[in-house]
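re: ur question from yesterday

yeah so i grabbed the chain u mentioned. its 105 aa long if i counted rite. heres the sequnce exactly as i have it in my notes:
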Amino acid sequence: MNSWIYLFLAGLFEISWAISLKFTEGFSKIFPSVLTVIGMIASFAFLSIALKKLPLSIAYAIWTGIGIAGTSVLGVIIFNETISITKIFFIGLIVVGILGLRLTN
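ran it thru and got these structure tokens back, copy pasting raw so excuse formatting
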């Protein structure tokens, strides 16, 4: 079960570095740039720990799915990105896919 917690943490750090990357303005701002690199390292570290026990095909799909879904939602909240029923539907499919993959393993 710990591997799933590590994978979830990896996904959260995936979201954090993607969001902070937007604030770096091409890595021209130091604080967001440092946060981005720390988030990347943490995300990869937790993913690598999770991969000790979880199959790569499942872990990678869930890791990227968490990143996609979380970044999409926060993009709307933080950056006022547009949202549509179609986007909501397809992000929902990603979430359903994540849950389905978790249940199969």
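noticed a couple things. Residues 56-79 form the longest helix (24 residues). also Residues 2-104 form one domain.
anyway ttyl
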